[in-house]
């Protein structure tokens, strides 16, 4: 029974039999009188079928009319599959089946399979169903291995991102996170393959070059723009399914090159991706290009003599990717259109533009981009590109170099938020000045002076004459307090102290954040502000507890002796006075000399003893005041250190840690970024 033709599900537009090219299959059918549209296709499973037909003409006409009238393209599945026994059939049904066994390429490329690419299509169909991430014989492909320095840089970037999440916004760390994710994903995939993208502008001939490298017309070429609407992958060896899956290229857009032992050996491990035009009018095409360019191991930029200086190419792609020069090929295509030595002149001008973009050129044995001139149409220079590409793939270092270049780009993007041109931190001078400001705020100097005066008053009370102390008491008691106006109230003093504390915190935060990148300077200032909350109250509490001790100041050992001497001087005055009174009253014999002498000794000796004690008390009083001032200063400094300096120092320490990690990522060391 004849197969009923049906529309192909991938057909983008109708096609008549007159437009189709006759295909040649591997079926061994015999017959005469076949129409122009009659042909035999190769099944997707690359099977073989033999049969004999005697009258295929009517059936062929029927199929042709069906395609023409319905304005659709038909395709019937073949009955034969790989490894099956050939069937033998006679009659018109067999011819109809042979005619209906037309194998078409994907719907984006409306053409029949030719004999040249039949084997490639069959192999592609088979590879589409192979398990992802599997190589030959079902073995898992050897994963990519990064060397020690690259692993160290990746670890440093991971640590850097972790330390910076609370200080930097997610947008700033987005590219670094993407590099880490892509490096980890690429490391799990095959290390035997190198994914190379063919990128170019509309009309540059990249699809033509893609076909020339594959040796078979895989990617559609023509005058319609843009021709390449979706990325197409071509792999020269098995085991690259995981890499192509990572690019999001479906199985129907995966190809194999023309079977050629020399070509396969030369480009073994290559996975070539034909990208849409980067200047396409379709936004989704440009998005595809931008997405895949971040995932491939290397890029071949195809330019033509008309658009090689296009600003979009240089400003949007080449200049930002200047650090990826070692994994780039810049190919000047269509040199066959240039007369005489014009190709050399255009090539020299292209090198000049690349130099202005900051792209190092791999000349004279130095690492950098490879610049070639060729013609994909005539084949001129394609062999040189294939040879360079083969050597490049054979090294199997493109993936690691791509990751290293991505790390360099991420480090350059992060440099403004990590690098500084000066040494940063809190100097000892800044710490001492902060402590001095806090001590002034709590009145440490005034407290020390008050302690010294208190010690002197205590010494005067203990060693002064009774008559002088009595007069001072009476004099102080008799003074009126009416009309006295205090110079400063307690509220004014507290407000002044609070302002001094705030000024001290502001000054130390500015000094600590000076020279830091903006995010870290902001973090230091915020830490200082948080610590200053409640600092004034804490200082007041410390001042009350660390100020003068309760009770009287301690007395030195010579005070009791001075008190006894002063008491003796007072006793002499009393004895001399009583003696004189007794003589005046006639109770005692007149003798003015002795009592007068006793009184004079007591009157003169008392002030002398008081003066001597005062002189002797100056040293201990000064030390007592200094001790009180020191205790208060230490308490204020301790409080300020715990609340302000320690949080600020913690932020600075975190910055030093991330700066060291950044130095490892940027391969400059901590000194190179600080």
Task: Write a structural description.
The chain has 22 helices and nine strands. With 674 residues, the chain is mainly α. The protein has a seven-stranded mixed sheet, with helices on both faces. A two-stranded parallel ribbon has the order 1-2. The longest helix has 73 residues, at 593-665. The model is unreliable at 1-139 and 480-489 (pLDDT under 50).
- Ends distance: 83 Å
Rg measurement, Å: 49 Å
Helix content: 40-55%
Low-confidence stretches: 1-139, 480-489
- Tally of contiguous helical segments: 22
Shape type:
rod-shaped
* Strand portion: 5-15%
Structural class per helix/strand content?
Answer: mainly alpha
Average of the residue pLDDT scores: 74
Major beta sheet summary: 7 strands, mixed
Strand arrangement across the biggest beta sheet = 5-4-6-3-7-8-9
Q: What's the total number of strands? A: 9
Could you name the key traits of this structure?
single chain, two-stranded parallel ribbon, 674 residues, mainly alpha, disordered N terminus, seven-stranded mixed β-sheet, 54% helix, 9 strands
Task: Set out the fold topology.
Elements: E1 28-30, E2 50-52, H1 57-70, H2 92-100, H3 115-128, H4 148-164, H5 170-187, E3 194-200, H6 206-214, E4 232-235, H7 241-247, E5 254-255, H8 261-266, E6 270-274, H9 283-293, E7 298-303, H10 311-318, E8 328-332, H11 342-356, E9 370-373, H12 382-395, H13 398-418, H14 428-442, H15 444-463, H16 466-478, H17 490-513, H18 518-532, H19 535-546, H20 559-585, H21 593-665, H22 669-673
């Amino acid at each position: 029974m004849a197969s009923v033709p049906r529309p192909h599900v991938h057909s983008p537009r109708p096609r008549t039999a007159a437009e189709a090219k006759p295909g040649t299959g591997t079926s061994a059918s015999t017959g005469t009188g076949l129409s122009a549209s009659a042909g035999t296709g190769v099944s997707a499973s690359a099977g073989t079928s033999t049969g004999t037909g005697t009258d295929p003409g009517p059936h062929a006409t029927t199929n042709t009319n069906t395609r023409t009238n319905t304005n659709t393209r038909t395709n019937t599945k073949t009955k034969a599959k790989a490894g099956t026994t050939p069937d033998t059939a006679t009659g018109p049904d067999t011819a109809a089946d042979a005619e209906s066994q037309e194998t078409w390429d994907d719907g984006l490329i409306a053409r029949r399979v030719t004999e040249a690419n039949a084997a490639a299509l069959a192999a592609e169909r088979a590879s589409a169903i192979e398990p992802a991430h599997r190589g030959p014989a079902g073995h898992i492909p050897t994963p990519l291995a990064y060397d020690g320095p690259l692993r160290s840089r990746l670890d440093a970037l991971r640590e850097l991102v972790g330390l910076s999440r609370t200080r930097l916004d997610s947008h700033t760390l987005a590219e670094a996170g993407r590099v880490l994710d892509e490096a980890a994903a690429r490391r799990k995939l095959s290390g035997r393959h190198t994914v190379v993208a063919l990128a170019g502008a509309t009309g540059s001939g990249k699809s033509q070059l893609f076909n020339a490298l594959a040796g078979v017309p895989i990617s559609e070429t023509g005058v319609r723009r843009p021709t390449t609407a979706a990325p197409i992958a071509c792999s020269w060896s098995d085991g690259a399914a995981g890499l192509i899956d990572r690019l999001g290229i479906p199985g129907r857009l995966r190809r194999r090159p023309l079977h050629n032992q020399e070509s396969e050996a030369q480009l073994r491990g290559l996975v070539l991706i034909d990208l849409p035009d980067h200047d396409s009018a379709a936004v989704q095409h440009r998005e595809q290009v931008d997405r895949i360019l971040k995932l491939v191991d290397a890029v071949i930029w195809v330019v033509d003599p008309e658009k090689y200086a296009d600003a979009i190419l240089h400003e949007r792609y080449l200049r930002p990717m200047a650090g990826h020069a070692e994994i780039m090929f810049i190919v000047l295509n269509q040199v066959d259109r240039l007369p005489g030595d014009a190709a050399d002149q255009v090539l020299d001008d292209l090198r000049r533009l690349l130099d202005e973009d900051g792209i190092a050129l791999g000349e004279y044995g130095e690492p950098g981009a490879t610049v070639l001139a060729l013609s994909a149409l005539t084949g001129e220079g394609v062999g040189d590109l294939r040879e360079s590409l083969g050597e490049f793939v054979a090294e199997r270092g493109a993936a690691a170099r791509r990751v290293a270049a991505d790390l360099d780009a991420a480090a350059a993007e992060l440099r403004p938020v990590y690098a500084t041109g000066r040494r940063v931190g809190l100097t000892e001078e800044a710490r001492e000045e902060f402590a001095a400001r806090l001590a002034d705020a709590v009145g440490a100097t005034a407290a020390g002076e008050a302690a010294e005066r208190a010690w002197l008053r205590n010494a005067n009370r203990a060693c002064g004459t009774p008559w002088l102390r009595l007069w001072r008491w009476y004099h102080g008691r008799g003074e009126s307090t009416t009309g006295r106006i205090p110079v400063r109230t307690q509220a004014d003093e507290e407000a002044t102290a609070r302002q001094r504390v705030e000024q001290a915190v502001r000054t130390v935060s500015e000094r600590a954040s000076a020279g830091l990148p903006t995010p870290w300077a902001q973090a230091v200032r915020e830490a200082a502000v948080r610590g200053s909350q409640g600092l004034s109250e804490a200082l007041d509490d410390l001042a009350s507890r660390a100020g003068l001790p309760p009770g009287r100041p301690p007395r030195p050992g010579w005070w009791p002796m001075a008190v006894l001497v002063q008491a003796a001087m007072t006793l002499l005055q009393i004895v001399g006075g009583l003696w004189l009174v007794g003589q005046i009253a006639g109770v005692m014999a007149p003798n003015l000399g002795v009592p007068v002498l006793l009184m004079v000794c007591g009157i003169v000796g008392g002030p002398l003893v008081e003066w001597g004690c005062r002189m002797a008390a100056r040293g201990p009083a000064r030390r007592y005041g200094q001790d009180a001032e020191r205790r208060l200063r230490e308490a204020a400094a301790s409080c300020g250190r715990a609340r302000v300096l320690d949080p600020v120092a913690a932020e600075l320490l975190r910055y030093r840690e991330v700066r060291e990690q950044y130095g490892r990522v940027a391969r400059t060391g901590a000194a190179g970024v600080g």
